[in-house]
Amino acid sequence: MFLQCLLGQPDLFFQSGKSNQISKIYAADAGLAHLRFWMRFLVSIKCLTTHQLRTAQVLVAEVGAMLGSWIKKRQKQGQSGH
After folding, report:
1. Angle 53-23-56 (CA atoms, 0-180°, nearest 5)?
2. What is the crossing angle of helices 22-44 and 50-80, to 10°?
3. Fold classification of 2-80 (topology level)
4. Integer Rg of the chain from CA
């Protein structure tokens, strides 16, 4: 399940970029939340170390910040009628 989630994330980004639907961006954001869950789970069953988790969380947070900016931009465009 983790690999499916991890490897499916680029497709969610691609779909978000190709469509004009903010719902696709929200789906990509939900995918990141799902990925965060699996990373924490993998630490709990000792498949990832806490150091690996922290490193991955920093990288995922950076992507999440980009998605958040993208969502705000799309919402702003929606309010202005573009």
Report:
1. 10
2. 170
3. de novo design (two linked rop proteins) (1.20.1440)
4. 15
Q: Please give the model's pTM, rounded to 2 decimal places.
A: 0.85
- Per-position DSSP letters for 27-43, written without gaps between them: HHHHHHHHHHHHHHHHH
Q: What are phi and psi of 12, to 5 degrees?
A: -65, -40
Dump strand ranges (E) for 1-82: none
Measured CA to CA, the distance from residue 60 to residue 37 in angstroms comes to 12
- Residues 10-38 pLDDT 10s: 999 999 999 979 999 999 999 999 999 99
Residues 6+ apart with CB under 8 A from 41: 2
In this prediction, residue 81 has a pLDDT band, given cuts at 50, 70 and 90, of: low
